[in-house]
Amino acid sequence: MLTGPEAIAQMVGGKIAPIYLEGRIPITEASSKELGLLPNQVVRAVVEQRPEGLIILINGRPFELPAQLRFRPGDAVWLKLLGGTQGFFLKLIPPPPSAQASHGPAGAQVSPLVASLFAQPANLSGLMALLSPSGGLSVIAGFLSGLAGTSGPLASLIKARPAMANLSPEAVRLAFRGSGLFSEARLASKEPISFDVKLALRELLVQLQQSRGVQTGLLQATESALREMESAQADSLAASSHRELSFSFLIPFRDADSVLISLFRPPRSPVEPDPPYTINMHTRSESLGELWMKTVIGKGQKLDFVMWADRKDVAQKAERAKGELIEDLSEAGLVMQSFSIFHGRRPSEELSGANEKPPGLVFDKTA
Hints:
six-stranded antiparallel beta sheet
């Protein structure tokens, strides 16, 4: 379980130091002067997640991160300006000893458990599979049927799931609050909790550990889902230290497959006091296949929407319904600036660091 913001404060930049690979980031001489850098000067930079992908922030200025360099949002990296007649570049170097020292009180060290939360991706794919009505959730229901008098968070999770058929803003708000992102904070404030995914899975984990029957697969899936949720909490806390909003959570529906939602907003700045929000959604079902949707909400309630469907018939149906959706949004006071639908998987799902696109994939560089 997370120990709180003090654990993050003990880490350089709110993240564990990455393994430094040989690599360089090209930079023009003019840009280096604008940043106030001199040859052989060392500068600390931070990796950030933006809608267009990972970037590295140097003295407040974003630079594209080369694809061969593997970092995570929030990683602190150290760079040295080198170059000459052949051009300038920033070379990755190990952090100085002073940066590696503990920031905790009296030299306190970060526990391996907490550090591991920052080292693994928080994509919640295991949680999505575990709470799938036709998959993990049916296994959980079968396991619970053999227990007498089951109540508490786990029973509430099964009963209190929202219905997609009558989904409302209030239902989304309640699902967000009960997503597990705020479990420890709600317990610390002694707030009554009627629905919380993380507490429900912890109860399930205890039940499985005490069970005499062999439930190895379900036990491992539950442990993995909990680690994903705590990594999502860690990522959100690290993003807040950079004045960003970044949340990932799952809505487990009772009448449809779960939907994974991620929200991101870069930090406010004098140049961009009201930055746009980016909302990504992902779901998979037998009736629709896999769907990815990305919505960017800018000033004046203007929207840019992109959808990817791995099934051709679903993409065609969405294309035919485009006009109706635009009208519905207009009635709600929203303006659709752009609306793109692609047949295929979302590029980030397929490319994940690759430099070339696979055959037959529609690649939208702006998404």
